[in-house]
Amino acid sequence: MHRFVHKAVLCCLLVTVTLFIPPASWAESKPLEKMEPITVKAARGVLQLEKLPTSATVITRQDIEEKNYINVEDMLREELGLDVLQNGTLGSSTTVFMRGAGSSSTLVLIDGVQVNSNTLGSYNFAHIQPDNVERIEILRGPQSTLWGGDAVGGVINIVTRQGTSTPAHTFSFEGGSFATFKETLSSRGKFDRLDYSFTASRIDAEGFSSANENNGNTENDGYNNSSVSLRTGLDFADTRGRADFIGQYIDARIDFDSFVFGVGMVDGPPYTAQDSYYLAAPVSYKIMPFWEISLNPNFAYDEVQSRNQTSGDSTIISRTSTLDLQNNITVGDHYNVLVGGEYQVRAGENISNGMDRKLDNKSAYMQGIFDYEDSLVITAGFRHDVNDSFDDVTTYKFEAAYRFKQTGTRLRGAYGTGFRAPTINDLLFPGFSNPNLQPEENTSWEAGFDQTFLDGDVSLSAVYFDARFENLIQFDLTTFRPENVTRATSRGVESTLKVRLPYDLEVSANYTWNQAFDTTTRTQLRRRAEHKFHANIHHWWKNRLHSLIGVTHKGKTVDGATGTDPYIVVRAALDYTLDKHWKLTLRGENLFDEEYEEISGFGTAGISGYAGFAFSF
């Protein structure tokens, strides 16, 4: 009966979305709003997105509002080159694999704060909210030259919003399936030289069983999340300087099921509670017209408390303190030089088993950029890291892109190296560690093109990448400890297509083909899908109504002796602006009630629907 009601509600939602898309005779054909150029902070803020030679995607604020997802992790599921894996209901641990590299090889930044766990190595995307996010920058391929270790697969940088005009405030509410409710209060604005942006939100959900219900598990795993995000900024010295304070606090708790050896996931009373805060106080100053210096002291703290009926209670603390100094120097009309250094202390502590370790790292980096008349861009850079636990490491990267203005064709390519040191858990966790692990090394190259037609109404891009890993670190399900895979290869093609149609319709699609395998055994690497496809159909009507239908396909994966089957899920979202104060939202997820898994043995949401509103004042 429960599933029948959900299906009926979602079918009504889909019909409603369809009816709200006016026939061609009603619509007013007009060009879509042109976005302002985006300077990519994940590339150290020198080049705009359209000039970057490396493969990059930016999820804008408009994308976030139109897609109407509840979490950042859901936005990432649609993107090129990413495998997003969640082990259960809303709030369950969520990690990202990029271009076949491990989850610990994707560096995650929040306004320049490195937030990867020092014990696990990866970042848990389950709790980060999109409410105060301006954009999400994704750089694919090794970025160790600019960001050091943990950036072998790439970088995901989350940039928070900045107040820009008269103060305005918004209260929003959404409720729906699995007894899910979210309330958000936000305010942002600017007073002369001072600006601010603030958001506070709360999520409560009864959820569903993280252990797959098909295996006889029926207990719902509840979730709650209280988050606060603040960004304040002050322009000084006639706008030659700027100082910011950025803070993010998350208090989350998820009821979770237990893992029993030989059985798998089963219903149980355990829970996990996480407290996180991320602080940054970046300051930039233009010393001379050609020389800008930036200093970013920042701190990341995560404390995870968990209770498990088989392994007992545990408290794990991760702390990262970073001081980053960056110089941007302009030499003439076409040259930029980026020179900087970083000092970082990373600490991990597991109170229940006495594990406590600090890692100290010092680094220097430099990158030269040649940008000639919006046609030719060439970059070359290197970085040297001095770590107190491993030998010194030098990485480098070369990139180039050339635009043929007459045809709208842009060719680009990159060649670079990266590395990742074993995590504290990899080396020290009692019973599940391997003190003999070697750092993971990567050599990667890519070549691709971007093409536009019909004055930009049609855009197409494709890139081939090839990454070779030495000593890839992967958890072995037979020894239950991390091991170095002697050699591994990840190669593939990433392609996108976007078409603007008459009557304010837009179709966008992307496809990722990725072969990631152990070169020695010729077996597929764990949890990496070879095929992934996503498409969205958008429609806008009179600047008041927006609707979309999205389709995601993901191919099979292997995970030791098990794995996951291919699946297709369909969603729909709608928002309607009544006036300058009110906006209504409606969305449906997994409209055809597909039964699927992202990780073997863990459940996923069936057909579900959500409705809400936003009131601005």
UniProtKB/TrEMBL annotation:
Keywords associated with the record: Cell outer membrane, Ion transport, Membrane, Signal, TonB box, Transmembrane, Transmembrane beta strand, Transport
InterPro entries: Beta-barrel_TonB (IPR000531), Beta-barrel_TonB_sf (IPR036942), Plug_dom (IPR012910), Plug_dom_sf (IPR037066), TonB-dep_rcpt-like (IPR039426)
This protein's record includes keyword Ion transport: yes
Topological relation to the membrane, as annotated: Multi-pass membrane protein
Domain TonB-dependent receptor-like beta-barrel stretches: 210-591
Signal sequence residues: 1-27
Domain TonB-dependent receptor plug: 49-155
Pfam families listed in its UniProt record: Plug, TonB_dep_Rec_b-barrel
Xref: SUPFAM superfamilies: Porins (SSF56935)
Intracellular or extracellular location(s): Cell outer membrane
Top-rank taxon: Bacteria
Family according to the record: Belongs to the TonB-dependent receptor family.
PANTHER family to which the protein is assigned, alphabetical: COLICIN I RECEPTOR-RELATED, TONB-DEPENDENT OUTER MEMBRANE RECEPTOR
Official protein name in the record: Vitamin B12 transporter BtuB
